[in-house]
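Problem 12. The chain below contains 65 residues. Write out its predicted structure in token notation.
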Amino acid sequence: MRRMKSNLSYVGKQLGLLLLVIFVGFILLCAGLMIGYSLVGNGDNAWAILSPEKWQSLFDKFTGK
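Solution.
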């Protein structure tokens, strides 16, 4: 019984670490998109790159719609 508790604790810690890495990666991706859009791309509003309308227009440009 003690070994099973130890295994569940290990799995829980690893799952928590994985979720933390995914969350930090997502935050860094958003920050990189905002910095790239506002500084390199000469965008007016850094938050505009996170809007669904902007992504829809980007997908439309790349797919030829």
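Discussion. Helices lie at 2-40, 52-63. Students who got a different answer should revisit the alignment rule from Section 12.3.
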